[in-house]
Give the backbone structure.
Amino acid sequence: MDGRLGAAVLTGNEYRFGKNWGCSITVAQTLPEKKRAWRMVYQSYLEKGYAKIDSDELWYGLYDMLPQTTTFIASRDGIDVATLTVVFDSEFGVPADQLYHDELDRMRQDGRRICEIVSLASNESDRRQGIEVLKHLFNVGFHMASKLVDATDFIITVNPHHASYYERKLLFRRHGEERSYAKVGGAPAVLLVLDLTTANERYLDEYGPDNGSLWHHFFSERTASSTVWFLVENVNRGGRQELMGWFRRKKPAVLERLGNHISPFDAAREAQLRQSAACAPLGLARDPSAGEVRDGILMA
C-alpha cells in the first residue's frame, strides 16, 4: 500500500509517513544525532539572520543538556529535512522565560505545566511537504508532552509573520505583546499558547472527525495509541555521558550552572546511590519497589 500525505504508519520502533512511506521521524539520542538537529537549526537561523557565525556550525545551549529535553528529526528518503525540540519546565524555566517570564509565571501560579517547542527548523523547498512534515513533528511533540509528561500547555515563540498559521490552523492563542528577542538577533517574537487539556475538543469542533482532518491526525484513537507506543519504544536517555563530555569541552559554563542546582532528576539519582551504599556493607539488595534510576529519571 502506498503511503499518503497525511497518513502515518507506526510499528512501535518506527514512525513513517509520506509518499511510499519515504518520510520518517526519529528521536535524537546520541551526540551525533543531536548534532544533526543542531546543524539544521544553525543553518536555518543563519540564513534568516537569527544566528551568529559559529565555528562548529551548531545551535544549542543549556536546555539541550537537560535530561528531559527531547529532540525529533524528520527525514525524507534518508535525508534530514526538519527538526523540533520540546523543553519541559524545570527549575531552569523554559527558553521563553527570557522574554515572557511574567506571563509564564502567572500560568505556573495557576497550576499550568508548560512545555516549549524550540529549535524548529525545516529545509523543505516544497511548502506543502514542509507543512506535512511540521504536522507530524507536532504530533510526536504533542503526545510526548500530553501523554508521557502530563504537560497542560504547549508554548512557542514565533516571528509575528508566521503567527497566523499557528493561530488559524493549529489553534494556538496569542499570549502577551510582541517583543524583540535578543537570542535570535533581535528579531520580533510573539508568545503563542495551545491548551493541551482542551485541544481535543477544540480541534473536533473546528475540523470534525473525518479521516484526513487535523483532529483525526492528532487525536484519533489509533493515532494516539500508536504515537505513544512509538515514543515509549524510542525515548530513552542514552548518550548522556557523551553529551556531557561535549558540553564540558565546548560550553563548560553550562555544566557549572547545572552543577549549582539539584534537580528532581538528580535528587532521584542521589537517593538511589545512598540506598545502594547503605545496603552494600550488609549484603542487602536495593529495594526493587523503589524503581530504577536511568540517567537521572526514576523508572517505576
Observations:
- The chain is about 40% helix and 20% strand.
- The chain has two domains: 8-234, 264-300.
- The CA atoms of residues 91 and 262 lie 9 Å apart.
- The radius of gyration is 20 Å.
